Amino acid sequence: MFRFEDPWVLSLLLLLPVVYWLRRVIERRRTGTLRYSAVGSVLAAGEGRSRWAHKVPEILRGLALAALIISLARPQTGITSENILTEGIDIVLVLDISSSMLAEDLEPNRLEAAKVVAADFVTGRRNDRVGLVAFAGEAFTQAPLTLDYSVVTSLVKELDPGMIEDGTAVGMGLVTAVKRLQASDAASKVVVLLTDGRSNRGEIGPITAARMAEALGVRVYTIGAGSRGTARVPVQGGRVYATMRVDIDEETLQEVAEITDGQYFRATDTESLAAIYTEIDELERTEIEVENFTQYSEQFPLVLGFGFLLIIGEVALSQTALRKLP
Fold first, then answer.
1. Which of 76-85, 203-212, 302-311 has the lowest average pLDDT?
2. Strand 240-245 relative to strand 218-225: parallel, antiparallel, unpaired?
3. What are phi and psi of 122, to 5 degrees?
4. Which pLDDT score is estimated for 87?
């Protein structure tokens, strides 16, 4: 940032043309004549000089005065900073990456839609730590809690059903996320869990995991992803497609959300999934107190020094190359 501490001083620049005019008037009145026995030396002294050469000292003097006035106005540059005072939120996204997530009732399929919307959700956070857990037959932490949103979004995009053994261990996915939040001292601890089926794997069930979350003050938002009825699912490595019934355990997901004082959502298409994440984003916003301040540093010594250099240049030229003869 740039400013003048005393900008009114700049109005003095308007006087420079007046000063120049008065000086010209006075010089004309003082002009005298001298007699030379021969004018050859005079002509030789002025040979090679343009008519503007004699004005160079005047121009330098005027610029020096302008620099002096500008320096008196105290030019300053500043750096603006802000202190953000907030307790923040710790959020862990839990995504189902089982093979059923390749169903194409969401565009282009459930998993890809979930990845795009989750990445947008992470990008939209500010001053909240975000983590990522993926699950199928097992669960693992893909990203610990971090403020580096670019890392989380890139890891979200890398999720693939072939990463771990197939299955739907909803409880293990939730427990893994809760463990990540166990040591958190954030004002709000949140899990956003998305799945498209029923829990059929893992040592810990979803309800037990929800009780653990409740004990640690973790709120869980659950999302059931899938249309109502049937969906087209690729099988045999994508070479064949089968139509399967959409079977989401909504009762369990609702109970998990209720136990932890969260909410359950159903996403039947990509648009509704995006709307759900937007709603969760609005629900999990903290008040952020921002203190803006600007630290200014004086720049007038540079301008003043430049003015002095101009004066030195004007004096040097006036006494040497552009010296006036009487």
1. 76-85
2. unpaired
3. -65, -45
4. 59
Question: Which tens digits make up the pLDDT trace of 90-149?
Answer: 999 999 999 999 999 999 999 999 999 999 999 988 888 999 999 999 999 999 999 999
Q: What is the CA radius of gyration of the chain?
A: 38
Same domain, 232 and 297: no
Q: Does 188 lie in the same domain as 158?
A: yes
231: its two tokens: 């969906």
Helices 250-259 and 206-215: angle between axes, nearest 10 degrees: 10
Output the pTM of the full model.
0.64
CB atoms within 10 A of CB 68: 18
Give me the chain's average pLDDT, please. Answer: 85
Answer yes or no: do 282 and 299 share one domain: no
Which residue in 223, 283, 257, 285 sits closest to 96, CA to CA?
223
Closest C-alpha among 49, 205, 184, 54 to residue 128: 184
Q: What is the pLDDT of residue 292?
A: 62
Mark whether 246 and 148 lie in a shared domain.
yes
d(CA 79, CA 75) in angstroms, rounded, equals 14
Residues 231 and 219: their CA atoms lie apart, in Å, by: 31
- Say yes or no to pLDDT of 43 above 60: no
Same domain, 170 and 251: yes
d(CA 123, CA 21): 63
Q: What is the pLDDT of residues 247-291, one digit of tens each?
A: 999 999 999 999 999 999 999 999 999 999 999 988 887 655 556
Would 315 be classed as within a structural domain? yes
6 and 114 in a single domain? The answer is no
Distance CA 211, CA 260 (A): 8
Inside any domain, residue 324: no
Residues 68 and 146 in one domain: no
Q: Total structural domains in the chain?
A: 2
Whether 128 and 239 share a structural domain:
yes
- Whether 131 maps to a domain, the answer reads yes
Domain span holding position 187 = 87-286
Distance CA 62, CA 321 (A): 19
The answer to whether the bond into 108 is cis (omega within 30° of 0) is yes
